[in-house]
Predict the 3D structure of the following.
Amino acid sequence: MKRIPELILNLLYPRHCPGCGRILKNQRALLCPSCRQTVSPFTEDYCLRCGRPVEPEQEYCAECSRRTRAFDAGRSVFLYDERWKTSIERYKYYGYREFADFYAEAMAYIFRSVRAEWRPDLIVPVPLHRKKERQRGFNQSWLLARKISRLTGIPAEKDLVVKNRATASQKKLSAPERKKNLRGAFSVRKRITGITALVIDDVYTTGSTVEEMAAALKAAGAAKVYFLTLCTANRPR
Ligand SMILES: [Zn+2]
Ligand SMILES: [Zn+2]
């Protein structure tokens, strides 16, 4: 019985491949056959703190060796190259929300390798300001968080952290500007003493969002804060 509405839905809104954007011939597949050959997660030579790419013999990236971080550690699935930039744009702005199924599976795959070490109690999406969420129609991080929660059995809480103000888009800002732009932008709505939180976001670029989230969560009592993002930017300039 369940199959009929799904079939109709697929005819009306065919699912696309998150790797290349083409309509999936097999509507049940997460990736098209050709992307299945070329898409691979980034699992070697990453910074032990922030998960960004480093030289093979390096343990920490330049930024993580220079200063302390509010988060404890984080990992990402893919390098933020043209393919994933386009994919995430389609997902966020052009209605390809079905990509979240593949994204969440990929993130849960990476999470499996760190789960025993991190042992998070709670999954926390990076919030959007409510105005922005209304404009966009959804919060891309919450959709991922919800799906990852279903895949891992770890509870996710949408409104634990809220974005207090609409901040300028981070896209065109430098790292210090991004930091300043976000300062005090998040607040945690209850005490979470002793909790280990796992922050979910789509992309880790300069790290200022995750950093600010981790600081807010720790100020509210979190013992540890980890993060998982779909993509991570290349080595800092
Ligand atoms: Zn494809
Ligand atoms: Zn690092």
The pocket of zinc ion (ligand 2) is lined by residues 47, 49-50, 52, 60-61, 63-64 (CB under 6 Å). The CA atoms of residues 162 and 187 lie 5 Å apart.
